[in-house]
Amino acid sequence: MQDGGDRRTLYLLAWVAQSNGSSLPVLARSRDGGVTFTIVRRGSSPERAGLWTSRTGAGPLYLMSGGQLAVSTDHGSSFSPLGPCSTRGRTT
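The structure corresponding to this sequence follows.
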């Protein structure tokens, strides 16, 4: 996903294989248009994380992970919790 405030900043949610055969989610960031990526956050359980930011201007980065919504104002370097999200009505 491209950052709306800086077109060279990209975010990537991916799964990384672990030595025990499982996979865990990671959030990676590129500041050079996708040439290189750095992992900025590692998930601790297998989950489907979600990511959102404005694609038309500068703004915060939102992460849904572990049933919690969090926000980052420093391009994913740190996140502050906003609160839990309900899973009522969720279908799998």
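Residues 28 and 59 are 18 Å apart (CA to CA).
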